Amino acid sequence: MNEYLILFIRSVVTYFTLVLFARIMGRKQISQLTYFDYVVGITIGSIASTASVEKNVDIYEGIFCIIIWSVLTILISEITLKNIKLRLLIDSEPLLIIDKGKVIYKNMKKARYNIGDLLMQLRVKDIFYITEVEIAILEPDGKLSVLKKSEHTTLTIEDMNIIKPKTGMMVDLILDGNILSSHLQQIQKDEDWVIAQLKARNINNIKDVVFAGIQADQQMYIVTKDD
Q1: 179 secondary structure, DSSP code
Q2: Which numeric CATH code is attached to 95-159?
Q3: pTM of the predicted model, to two decimals?
């Protein structure tokens, strides 16, 4: 068979195999790329390209490897949906980089994130002074989420003749039906208080709560499985 025809067939087969499993694995590979997703995506792409052009690699072996990597990724995604500790282990967790205008260097060091990266990402958000920042968090995908101090936020019609409420970070209290005890300690509350808040909103089973958090104004935000 013509050499170019063989390459064409191999490329078509691996292409559609890759497209198929990319769709099965979901859109997270594109919209919320964590370091784990990045490594998986690069590896699967590398396997597909090798299977396409390397004559000494059996195309069926390449497809088999793509299937194994894809199935493992799907399984891990399903497990991490229910296991918070494993999710944090694989995807890592958000890191507080700036708190009330003060840089937390130990967290930057932990993430191998330098001051140049921080200043660049702040400038992208039109922030040129660290002291303007109330809170800055480095997300697992490498993006920086920033909350400005009240006095540095843009004035809106709502602000006219209204005392601006205190700004702050929403504290996560419940995630996938699990109470986050360490976060409760931050706001000096206990599990009984959380359960009472849920009952006041006619939520009797904590396992029905996908997410619950408390804002700086002490308002609780809740997402249930029925929402």
Answers
A1: E
A2: 3.30.240.20
A3: 0.51
